[in-house]
Automatic annotation (TrEMBL):
Residues 127-156 are annotated as: Disordered. The gene is dhaM. It comes from Agromyces indicus. Its EC number is 2.7.1.121. One of its GO terms (molecular function) is phosphoenolpyruvate-glycerone phosphotransferase activity. Component of the dihydroxyacetone kinase complex, which is responsible for the phosphoenolpyruvate (PEP)-dependent phosphorylation of dihydroxyacetone. DhaM serves as the phosphoryl donor. Is phosphorylated by phosphoenolpyruvate in an EI- and HPr-dependent reaction, and a phosphorelay system on histidine residues finally leads to phosphoryl transfer to DhaL and dihydroxyacetone. Residues 157-240 form the HPr domain. The keyword Transferase applies. It holds the Pfam family EIIA-man. Gene3D superfamilies: HPr-like, Phosphotransferase system, mannose-type IIA component. Homodimer. The dihydroxyacetone kinase complex is composed of a homodimer of DhaM, a homodimer of DhaK and the subunit DhaL. Residues 8-135 form the PTS EIIA type-4 domain. The lineage of its organism: Bacteria, Bacillati, Actinomycetota, Actinomycetes, Micrococcales. This is Phosphocarrier protein HPr. Keywords: Kinase, Transferase.
């Protein structure tokens, strides 16, 4: 496992369940191996609940200077996190944000954004966009598998098709690799009509081994991004 990078925003999972928080760290680490991911679950004596001391320690461990995003499962967990923030020094408090986001979806999205090197505000936005409007697996005016209507920009559209060859298709880890690669390009790229930079939407497609996938961009400068994603898919996302 790679060492956590000091220039990455950290992510803290606050849950009433110790096992739930630790499980989410385990899940997110598959997609964000260089991010400081910290679990703060349960009470100090192992019961269901939250712990001020655990949350405070997790924030300190997650923030190596680039800041940390905190996600919580229930209202009392938010209260515990807010109390912990009050006891931080002014400099660190300015680098720590509590995201208004679902714990699982928001935590995964935040972890992937942090792994991509996004700054604190962008990681918070990634978390808070998870599960909201536009994250339903389809985009406005189109459904999965439906060809977009032709328009004046059709002539500039770049499109390639590739068949998924890795055993489990676009499950969490390869989907995260795809999103990280897409996010490294400024142009907008789609996967079967879905924004390639939206992890939850990509995973929501449920693409399995053998599925034919269209990688496309309406941006005339998007060819390099399309080709890079095609190459990643053809490589089996490093799973072969």
């Amino acid at each position: 496992m790679p060492e956590p990078a000091a220039d990455r925003v950290g992510v803290v999972f606050v849950s009433h369940s110790e096992r739930l928080a630790e499980g989410l760290v385990e899940l997110a680490r598959q997609m964000a191996p260089t991010v400081r991911l910290e679990a703060a679950g349960g009470t100090d004596d192992g019961r269901i609940g939250t712990s001020f001391d655990k949350v405070t320690a997790a924030i300190s461990a997650a923030d190596a200077g680039a800041g940390a995003v905190v996600l919580c499962d229930l209202g009392s967990a938010i209260m515990t996190a807010e109390t912990a923030l009050e006891f931080l020094d002014d400099d660190q408090r300015a680098r720590v944000r509590i995201a208004s986001a679902p714990l699982v979806e928001g935590g995964v999205a935040a972890s992937v954004a942090a792994e991509s090197g996004d700054a604190l505000d962008a990681v918070v936005r990634a978390a808070e966009s998870a599960g909201g409007p536009g994250e339903t697996g389809t985009e406005a005016g189109a459904t999965a598998g439906e060809e977009p209507a032709a328009d004046e920009g059709e002539a500039t559209r770049i499109s390639r098709r590739v068949t998924l060859t890795n055993a489990d298709g676009l499950h969490a880890r390869p989907a995260a690799e795809l999103v990280k690669l897409a996010s490294s390009f400024p142009q907008r790229v789609t996967v079967n009509g879905i924004d390639a930079k939206s992890l939850l939407s990509i995973m929501g497609l449920g693409l399995t081994k053998g599925a034919e996938v269209e990688i496309a961009s309406d941006d005339p400068e998007g060819a390099a991004a399309v080709e890079a994603i095609v190459a990643l898919a053809e490589s089996g996302f490093g799973e072969h």
